[in-house]
Amino acid sequence: MSEIDARLEKLETTIAYQDETIEELNKAVTDLWRELEATRRDLSKLTDQLRVVEAHPALAPQDEPPPPHY
C-alpha cells in the first residue's frame, strides 16, 4: 500500500468517526432542546400560578378564622 493510499484510508476512517460523532451530538442537542422547551412550558405555568396566588393573597394568620376545635 502506498503512502498516499494509507493517508487516504486514514482520512476516510477519521471522517467516518467524525460523522458518527456529529450524529450523536445532534441527537444530544435535540434531546436537550426538547427538555429545555418542556422546562420553559413548566416555568410559564408556574409563573401564571404565582401571579394568581399573588393577586389573591391568603389571609394573614391573625385574620384566619380559628380552627373548628376552638
UniProtKB/TrEMBL annotation:
Family: Belongs to the SlyX family.
Top-level taxon in the UniProt lineage: Bacteria
Pfam families xref list: SlyX (PF04102)
UniProt name for this protein: Protein SlyX homolog
InterPro entries: SlyX (IPR007236)
PANTHER family noted in UniProt: PROTEIN SLYX
